[in-house]
Amino acid sequence: MEHPEMEWGGEYTLESSNLDCLLNIFPEDLEFHQILGDIDEKIKKNASSMEQCLKELQSEINETCSDELLQDTTECLQWLNKCSFSSVKPCSTPHGELIKFLQALQNLLKNEQNQEEIILHFLLDLSSQCGVLFPCTSSGSSFEFTSNISLHGIEDDSAMDVFCIWDDVRLHLRRFLVNQLQSHHETKIGTTQQQLQFKTQCLQQLLFLYPESEVIAKYQNMQNKLVSDLLQKCVLESNGETNLEKVVFGYESSIPTLYSMIKEDLYILGGLIEPSSTLKFINESYLDTITEEITILLEKLCEIQFEENALYSVSTSKSSKKQKGVAQGWASQESPREGRTFGLTINQLRCLSQLVKLFLMMEEKVEELASPCFSDNKNVQGVLKKAGGDLLIGESRTNGASMLPEQLLRVKESTILAFGWRNAFKDLSTSVAYCITTAVEDLSTKILQNEQKELSSSFSYVINLVNVQCIKQSWGVLNEKEQPKQILKFCSDILKELDTLLPLALACRDESLQEIRANFVEASCKVATAVLERLEERSKDVPSRAPLQNLYALLSTSVHVYQHFKMYHDLIKQKSRKPFFLVPLQRYQELISVLQFQVKHYCIRVCATSILQDAESHYWDDCKAFYEGERCSFSVQMWHYFCCALHHDLWTVLPPVLAQEILSEVLEESLAVLTCRYFQAQPSYKRTSQIRIDCTAILMTCENMLWSVCCSVQELLSPHQDENPCIYKIHKHCNDLLATAFILTAPVKDLYETFQNSFDDPIRSLLSEPPVRQPLNWLCGITEFSPSFLKTPSAKEMAAWGQLKLLLSQPYCNWNLLLETLLHHDCLLVKILLRSSKSESFRCGDQSTCLDEKNSNKPSLTEAIFTVLSFCALSPTSLGVVLENFMEKEKMWECLYNMSVSSCAESEPEVIRCLKWTLMNSVKGIVKQIISLMHSWEATENYGTYQHKQIIPESLLKTVPKEWNYTPREMKRKESGKCFTRLAAQAVSIVISKLPTVIACLPPPIKYFFFLSERKMPKTCVESKKAGLLVWILIVIICRIFEDGNTTELLIGTTLDRWSKEKLSLVRVCLESIMGKKKSSPKQVTQKIIWSIEQQRPNWIENQLLKARKLSIDCTVNAAEGGRSLEVEAIELELTEQKINMMVLDICHKPGGTEYLRQIYHIIQLNEEYLSEQLFYEEFSEENMVNIRPLNLTLRNKAQHPVFDPFQVHYWYCTHILEKSTIIDWKWDSSNLLPSYPGLNKMTLKTLLKHRWEMKEGEVLEEEEKEMLEHLKNLCLTTTPPSPEDKVEHRT
């Protein structure tokens, strides 16, 4: 039966929607409409294509089978359903011709070399073109025809010769294919995709020759041997003893290889056989083999350990039996009897635990891999998937009997993955359970004893710390802000041993292994209790015998141990659904609370009783000025020094969140003490200036510390009393301190003028209205000494340099704050980073492509910035603003308009390379579909064309029976030349039809950048790019990919032959003609292809291009307008933080997103001073930025912690606080400081006025000052009932 010729052009095109890029973004409404519309259109086209194919099939059936006529496509489907493909019309081929043909095949294979591949293609060609069916019976049944009984009822002996010769031919071919598979596994030539295609082709050809069961059985034996050989290499043969450590090391390297083999076979067999058969193959070929090998290994270990224990217990030595050195020999030995126990060393327990961990990881990965692998059906063409039929040949299908009822109702038994590796550990479970308790307790006891010896032998109580970053957390990942940075070394050693043995407890699923888990939990609880008691004991040594730094380490260690056992609890609970470690977790929570309180209480007590006790500085009645008014008090300077040292210690040891909490509480309570003391001060005239200097120094220290204790801009600028009580109190204390300094030290005239318009009762009038909440009011008092971090104080908008300082003051890399800083003030920081970064030169040859550079070079700063901003879908204008500014200053627009694929010269900017890679990745699906179209067309229209240089011998072609009507491929290839036009038209249609969907799936920042770039194009370019810059560049990139075969192969991982490259070149020429890039008149074939598309769908190409352009413009404009409207309407900060959080989550879930953010953060850290200097000029034009220099790109070693330098702190304090705070002649805005102060009330003003030096008896005042003071006294002496706030202030 001649197959109908498939029409690749026209309305009924077989297409599938390419939505590879859809997962990279969250589309808006317009994109969703386009994507859903594209899917709907493809469904309609596929339905139309199927309808047309059925009509053609109906017509051909009516012509072939004249006995019945099919009226419509429904009857055609019913006829196909009833047709039995297992029965074939008897062949009229003469027996002599058939024997002659098979003998020619046999002789050619025996006498000529390297003819197997030609013969295989030839046989497949005969089957597909002529409908010849070769028997696919099992290898043994064919030879049964030598007996007198014929399974097929053949009465003469002629059929026996036919089947014997055919068996000999296919046996030869089977050996060839099996050798190909075996040699391919050893060499592994080509890419992964090519290797998969080769194995798939070999298995398909084997299925053509033999039944599925026999092929799978043969392939299973091959894979069984590979798995056994791979695992047996892990077993060391050394005088009958097994080196378990080397075995585990071998398994560690072998398990990834086995996983890759399973992944390949799941992919290959998923398109050849049923899913249940595939799972059965995986079970029997891999999982059962692995279980068998590990069982043999553990049985050998049991025998060896039992004999060693027996020799140790018996006084007389006995000669040990001679053991075999390979794993197969162990299987024949008697397995250990149940119930017998023997000792295992700690090293053996570690090795067994590592083995269990490997199997747990492999089990999880294989289950995850097998679950979705059958959802995507693989396309297997023609007769290669299954070759049915028990007769030799047939010329046409007949409407035979339908399938039997039992065949229709056959229910296949479901198959699941069964990895029985746990059964191998059952014989060891009793011994492991017994030894694990002793091992854990002995190890912890030994480590605790060593810690006690080290502490006793040292002259000081300095304890050993280790970085938590050096400890690998294999079973869980903590949030960086909750993870301690340094802990005690002995606790780290103990937890490391518990982590090593944890897999033994996690392996428990049945009763045989529950004892191991129970003993591990019991031993771990004892260890946790012992460690907790040791930590409590060490905490009592502070501060009598040990320094305060030990308390930080103890607190950090307690948090780390708690987190570790919480992780154990969660992991084991997943397996058993029972709670564990509840008592240790509760006790550690209590210890953490106690230690945290102890740290805070000790620091505050030191400040109150020691640091802030300064009799000389605080002798306020002294008639002499303190150091002639040139410095602040010693206590204030030491308080600043103590806060800096505490900041360093907490940042170095504790978890970031806990460190910020403790520092903020100590700062707040110590500041409360200072505020109270200065509120009670009654300075003399000479000491008045000292009050002002001290208060200014305290406020500057608070301003410097606030950057570290605030986690967000909101906490710093708008703290809430309920959400951030500690930060809110710090602002309140600073406001109180500023008011105290102003009322105590301000001239009487300033106080008088402040209240001269409110002599009636200004205080009552102030109290009658709710006070205005202005926590940042105190900053107005130090604006002359410290640059304000508020860009606009009324709107409370953070300045650019303030945003950077807040980011770098955090104890960890805060992703949300980092992204907010990058997007702040139109991405000013990103613009500086791009302009200051050095462009890395690319060394590539003439044949190198962008993909080479992408694969061979590590991500640069430019690439990291580009990728992060392109992921910010909720801020679509950011990337466009940054790139527009950068390309404008660097004059790169011509490079963008003349973008190509293969150019990777040093002169090409890196930004262009990033854009190019993004666009190439977006059209990757189109390229794959075009290549798939080429292969499908070649397989259907020109199936069996030999890609090798050799051709079928003429002697073999002469023996082909004439009844088969076989036409050699060489002749048909010439006849099929007319189909190239339809192929090219179909490929061009795919590209044009996919453009709107590709643009819809592009990230919004990329589309917005091209929207801005289009405005910069010269008029000449605008005319030549009427479809839009983005559409034009996408088609140019597709053309360049088709032109450069190397780029195509690297992009899709498939090797193209010369024929495919020629067809791709034709498609490229057509696309260039459509875009008007070819100025010369197109060739006739090009005109014919474009004309055929336009004839079937008039104006379709133009409409698609306009649709793509409109989609890109509408989406970008709407996104930009939406972003602007949010700014204009001044959406609340909570919504902005929510958007930032959503973008950070999106970035971190993208491949490499976290590393990109971390790289940007580290480079900002290295260039903090330079970037702060550049951002400080944000108020001026960016052209006025001076001293643009290359960035320092050398990353720091994460394991190194900065050392506290007291001299550096002293120098900073002298230059930033002492010198500035001694300036007396600064101006305070009295009208803003007092009336806007929310805590101002009558009791406060009355008390502070009494503390002024003018109120003391014996002071000499001018008449004007006396009158003003008299008015103020009368104001304060007005009797009013005290308010609740008055009572609070009075108690203060």
Can you give a write-up of this model?
The chain is an all-alpha fold. Helices cover 63% and strands 1% of the residues. The protein contains 50 helices and four strands. The strands form two sheets. Strands 1-2 form a two-stranded antiparallel ribbon. Strands 3-4 form a two-stranded antiparallel sheet. A hairpin with a 4-residue loop joins strand 3 and strand 4. Helix 18 (634-653) runs parallel beside helix 20. It is flat. The N and C termini lie far apart (104 Å).
Mean of residue pLDDT?
Answer: 76
Taking all Cα atoms into account, the compactness measure Rg is 42 Å
Helix content range of the residues, please?
55-70%
Distance between the termini: 104 Å
Low-pLDDT ranges = 1-24, 85-90, 141-156, 312-338, 374-412, 470-474, 758-772, 839-856, 943-949, 972-976, 1122-1134, 1279-1292
Strand order of the largest sheet: 1-2
Strand proportion: under 5%
By helix and strand content, what is the structural category? mainly alpha
Major sheet size, sense and barrel closure: 2 strands, antiparallel
Question: Care to count the β-strands?
Answer: 4
- Counted by DSSP, the helix tally is 50
Global geometry: flat
Describe the structure concisely:
The protein has 1292 residues and is an all-alpha fold. 63% of the residues lie in helices and 1% in strands.
